[in-house]
Design goal:
Blueprint: H1 4-15, E1 24-27, H2 31-41, E2 49-52, H3 55-63, E3 79-82, E4 86-87, E5 93-94, H4 101-110, E6 113-119, E7 132-136, H5 141-150, E8 154-157, E9 168-173, H6 180-188, E10 193-196, E11 198-199, E12 206-211, E13 214-218
Parallel strand pairs: 1-2, 1-3, 3-6, 6-12
Antiparallel strand pairs: 4-5, 5-11, 7-9, 7-10, 8-9, 12-13
Helix pairs in contact: 1-2
The structure holds ribulose-5-phosphate (5RP).
Length: 219
Amino acid sequence: MLTANELKLAAARKALEFVPDDAVIGIGTGSTVNLFIDELAAIKGRIKGAVSSSEASTARLKAHHIPVYDLNTIDEMPIYVDGADEVNHYLHMIKGGGGALTREKIVAAAAQEFICIADESKYVDVLGKFPLPIEVIPMARSFVARELVKLGGHPEMRHDFVTDNGNIILDVHDLAIAKPVELEERINQLPGVVTCGLFARRRADVLVLARQGGVEVLR
Ligand code: 5RP
């Protein structure tokens, strides 16, 4: 029986097969991505470098002497590699458990292909058991929370946490997410919301899913 960490490592290793030569690639955030960065270090001579989605990933990339580029200087990025808190069969995701959702969404949007790396515990029929993270501008906290209650959720402020952009996170419990694209659009339209952790409009293109029986590649 493989541990969760061993499964994450298996997904991270498999994802190396998607890394093209001489490219700048997008890098997500989280414990699965940390393992991917460590694996990437072994083949770093094959790539030009990375665009990072968080201060934490930037620090880890730099510790491995992998060049980190400002997104504004890059006009082509073939892949973005990131984990997820939940991913469904349509490859819609909930992300933001680490609080890096906004930069993750930006870097993902700039990439041609989103490669999601995950262990089987993340693969679900319906999104929403994991509380949906939403990055909110601090002055809008109460207003946005009230609007989220109207949508049927129970928002909880993430304590002692400030995003890399200086904002807060509301984690929304008890949302039954039957229509991820519609809900993502609806929440993102609320004034004060920077972005929500639903990645459905721009879903993953490839899911590298580590299971006890082996690693599967789903599209
Ligand atoms: C961070 C994220 C992560 O991708 C997500 O939380 C999964 O993290 P982990 O690989 O540690 O389970 O969205 O904002």
